[in-house]
Specification:
The longest helix is centred in the middle third of the chain and has 12 residues, at about 10-25. About 70% of the residues lie in helices and about 0% in strands. It is globular. The protein starts with a helix and ends with a helix. The protein has 3 helices and no strands. By secondary structure, the chain is an all-alpha fold.
């Protein structure tokens, strides 16, 4: 999902917020996943 959203925006915060909403993640967990998959 991170890679798909990255095609539409380069705003990591916005992508983390989408993950929080979609998957009910804690903010820190969402930020970690964005960082992990950003350069994949």
């Amino acid at each position: 999902m991170v890679l798909s959203l990255k095609e539409f925006t380069t705003d990591k915060v916005a992508i983390a917020q989408k993950l929080i909403k979609q998957f009910e993640l804690l903010p820190q967990a969402a930020e970690e996943r964005v960082e992990r998959y950003w350069n994949s």
